[in-house]
Design goal:
Length: 189
């Protein structure tokens, strides 16, 4: 009788261990870190991404659509109808040099994600500075040095995220901003 209990206990431990490993690996697929968005890593080629994610859909897009100052093509990475990311390449190569997270499904280890309000972000970080894009008057950024990520905000109907009091604050950024605005993208470069 003791041997039966021991066998059941061992089988239960094996089942729970396998479940935990599956959950851990699937969670890592959605973690934003310094050089990767889940299993998509800076330095991979477009072909490697397409081979590794053969059950995903890929669409062509252009860098200038994501405030990147050139006309090269990149790829949108789509999982079950959810556009996860845009990956762009080094000029005239197939090597990924930047990734833009587009989905609320992905988050950093500290919980930062697309769709998060600046007010929530302030609970994690102080001294935030918002800076306008040099290329697109409807785009503004916050850089989180500790996480090495760039938060992207889109302006709408001329309403900017930052409150720029003078010409200098347009270049240096400002710590005055609309706290209700939400992160539109998270860039890794």
């Amino acid at each position: 009788m003791n041997i039966n209990i021991l066998i059941q206990l061992l089988l239960t431990m094996i089942v729970f261990t396998n479940c935990k490993q599956k959950n851990d690996s699937s969670n890592e697929s959605y973690i934003i870190s310094k050089n990767s968005l889940g299993r998509i890593k800076i330095g991979m080629t477009k072909k490697e991404i397409q081979n590794q994610f053969n059950n995903y859909r890929f669409e062509k897009a252009y860098n200038y659509e994501y405030d990147i100052d050139d006309e090269e093509e990149g790829i949108l990475i789509i999982e079950k109808g959810d556009t996860l990311a845009y990956a762009w390449t080094k000029y005239n190569t197939d090597t990924i040099i930047g990734i833009s997270c587009l989905s609320e499904k992905l988050l950093t280890k500290t919980g930062i994600h697309v769709g998060m309000e600046i007010a929530e972000l302030e609970k994690k970080y102080s001294g935030l500075i918002v800076v306008p894009s040099m290329y697109d008057e409807n785009t503004e950024y916050m850089y989180l040095e500790k996480e090495e990520i760039e938060l992207v905000f889109k302006s709408y109907k001329g309403k900017r995220v930052g409150i720029y009091k003078n010409e200098k604050s347009l270049y240096d950024g400002t710590n005055l901003y609309d706290k209700t605005r939400k992160i539109n993208r998270i860039n890794l470069r």
